[in-house]
Design a protein that fits this description.
The chain has one domain (3-103): Ribosomal Protein S5, domain 2 (2-Layer Sandwich). The radius of gyration is 13 Å and the shape is globular. The mean pLDDT is 89. A five-stranded mixed β-sheet has the order 1-4-5-3-2. Helices cover 33% and strands 37% of the residues. α1 packs across α2. It has three helices and five strands, in the order ββββαβαα. It has helices spanning 53-66, 83-97, 99-103, and strands at 3-10, 19-25, 28-35, 40-47, 72-78.
């Protein structure tokens, strides 16, 4: 059974582009990013790991401590990825989405 989690976090205004990293399966996860107007990040997670809200909250907080989140909608499809893989994929997606900002 899949569990759905939603988080809303403060964000900075930034010009980003849509991004997709990872793939669903083999203990990995897929992260998709779309730009949003405003000052919030919306994170929508579908996970096959029931009762994982605390783990997800901790990973998101660790990422926020290192990276200022851009205003975006992030959709994550998780099939039992480890916290290290979760963090890697989210950071990769943010970096890819922010590439437009870096090249401007």
């Amino acid at each position: 059974m899949m569990e759905t989690l939603h988080f809303t976090r403060p964000a900075r205004a930034a010009e980003i582009q849509p991004a997709l990293v990872g793939y669903v399966g083999s203990g990995d996860l897929e992260v998709m990013i779309e730009p949003l107007q405003g000052s919030q990040t919306e994170i929508h997670i579908q996970t096959s790991s029931p009762g994982s809200e605390i783990r997800w909250r901790q990973v998101i907080e660790q990422i926020e401590a290192r990276i200022s989140l851009p205003a975006m909608r992030m959709d994550i499809h998780d099939f039992a990825a480890t916290p290290g893989v979760i963090r890697l994929r989210i950071e990769q997606a943010i970096e890819l989405a922010s590439a437009v900002e870096a090249s401007a």
